[in-house]
Design brief:
CATH architecture: Orthogonal Bundle
Number of domains: 1
CATH topology: yeast vps74-n-term truncation variant fold
Oligomer: single chain
Membrane topology: Peripheral membrane protein
GO molecular function, one term: phosphatidylinositol-4-phosphate binding
Structural class: mainly alpha
Protein name: GPP34 family phosphoprotein
Keywords: Golgi apparatus, Lipid-binding, Membrane
Radius of gyration: 18 Å
Subcellular location: Golgi apparatus membrane
Order of helices and strands: HHEEHHHEEHHHHH
Shape: globular
Distance between the termini: 51 Å
Length: about 210
């Protein structure tokens, strides 16, 4: 099953019962970065001096990637990554990708009611092999001496930035994951942005008395 990096992140980011392993907002930002990662690997864009440069405007042939590339191609000047990536944020991308995974038989879309009042949409796995294939590839990449391909490095880097390595693969070598993440420029920028955002959140809590001294 050929999947986008974003789809592979979703398979790692949910439990077999369809519950998210990390904060959904953080996951959505990571999915946006994954679209850029696939476009970079396909040689449609590149990161140059902190800006996203379109190197080939030809549509890759995937609706999710085509849309992202088209928006970038319409820009008169290459946008700074730190501005463009947050502007790509939308929870709708996660919904679209989960629906795609459901159509391909990897997950099942279910609506559950609890307390007889509230409805919740969950996506339990339908085909364990899809998720297991991604897990095996990541674990193989984290083995000492392994030389994973660029796409797997990008997947590991983004999963590491989002905290998914620890949550989805608790026995995985996180130091090795950090080492691989250091090879990926885009994933490195995402990790730095998440750390800065976390620091700012803690700072706001401290100023507001939300953290005990």
């Amino acid at each position: 099953m050929d999947l986008l990096i974003a789809e592979e992140l979703l398979l790692l980011g949910y439990t077999p019962k369809g519950k998210p392993l990390v904060n959904l907002e953080l996951l959505d930002y990571t999915l946006s970065a994954a679209v850029l990662a696939d476009l970079m690997i396909m040689a449609r864009i590149d990161l140059r001096n902190g800006r996203i440069v379109v190197t080939d405007p030809a549509p890759p042939g995937d609706t999710e990637l085509d849309s992202g590339l088209d928006r970038l191609s319409m820009r008169e000047q290459p946008p700074p990554f730190e501005e463009w990536w947050p502007a790509m944020y939308t929870p709708e991308r996660r919904a679209r990708l989960l629906e795609r995974l459901a159509r391909r038989g990897a997950v099942t879309a279910e609506t559950r009611t609890y307390l007889r009042l509230f409805k919740e949409e969950v996506f339990p796995e339908a085909d364990p092999a899809a998720r297991e294939s991604v897990r095996r590839r990541v674990l193989a990449a984290l083995e000492p001496g392994a030389e994973p391909d660029r796409r797997t490095v990008a997947l590991v880097s983004l999963a590491h930035a989002a905290g998914l390595i620890a949550k989805a693969l608790p026995k995985a070598d996180r130091k090795r994951a950090a080492e691989l993440a250091g090879r990926d420029r885009l994933g490195g920028l995402v990790a730095v942005a998440f750390k800065q955002a976390a620091g700012e959140s803690v700072g706001r809590l401290a100023k507001g008395g939300g953290l005990a001294g």
